[in-house]
Write a structure and sequence with these properties.
Layout: E1 5-10, E2 14-19, E3 25-31, H1 41-51, E4 55-59, E5 72-73, E6 76-77, H2 78-90, E7 94-103, H3 105-119, E8 128-132, E9 140-143, E10 159-163, E11 165-166, E12 189-194, H4 202-214, E13 220-224, H5 233-250
Parallel strand pairs: 3-4, 3-7, 6-11, 7-8, 8-12, 12-13
Antiparallel strand pairs: 1-2, 5-9, 9-10
Helix pairs in contact: 2-3
Amino acid sequence: MPLNIVQRLLPGWGITYGPSGDGPFPAIMLLHGSEGAWAGWSHRDAMLFAAHGFLAFPYGYSSGGNAWSAGHIIDYPLDRSVEALKALREFQFADERVGLYGISRGAEHALLLASLMARDKLEGAPDAIAVHSPPDVVCGAFDALSFRDAGDPGWQAWDASKRAWTWCDSHDGLLPTTLIEIERYPGPLLLSHGTQDRMWSVEMTKRLEQRLCEHGRSPEVHYYEGEDHIPSSSGQNQHYELLLDFFSKHL
C-alpha cells in the first residue's frame, strides 16, 4: 500500500512531512514550545498538515535534552531560524510560499523572528504566520531541569536571570519584558488562545490584538472559551480547522 504521507530529509536541517508525489507543496515551518524538540508534538502537527496537502517542517531549536527530558531554550540564535526558513524555501518539494506556525515559546519565537526580520528589512520573511498561546513580551530562558509546576515552591514561567534569545550575537532588544514589535510584520497573522490558559494568560494575546489594531493591522484572532494551554480534543479540532483554513488561504 503506498504511503499518503512521506518523510523527506531537508539536508542539513531535519525531516519534513508531506504528501506523496513531486510537488511542489505549500510549506510550513513549525516551532515547538518548551516541551522541546524531542517531545514529538510538532511532528504530530506536521503530519496533520501533510495530510492536508502541506509540506511541513518541524524545526527543533531547543538545546540538549533527550527522549526523557526537554532540554533548554537559552541563548538561541534567532538568525539560525532565518537560515532554516531560507533552506525550506529552496527545498525542491516546497512551493514559493512558506508559512510559520508556533505554539507557546514557539509562538514567541515566531513573533520575534518576524518582527526582527521586518525591522532589519531581511528578505525571506514568512508569507503567513499563525501562533497559539503567544506572549506579547520577550520571556526569559527556559531550562527543563529547573522547571516547576504552577503552585510549586519556586515556580516561575521562565528564568529571568538568563536570556532565551540572541540576534546577531546580541541580547539587545531581547531582554525579558521587552514588547515584541509584531506590528512591524505586514503579512497575514493568526492569533489564538484558550481563555482558561493557566500557563500563559490570555490577556497577552488580547494585548497583541489591541496593539496590532492600533497600528492598522487586521489579525485573525480566535479565543477558545474554557480551553487551557493545551486544548481539549474538541478544542484541538476547532483549532486545526481554523489553522488549515488560514494557511490554505494565504499559502
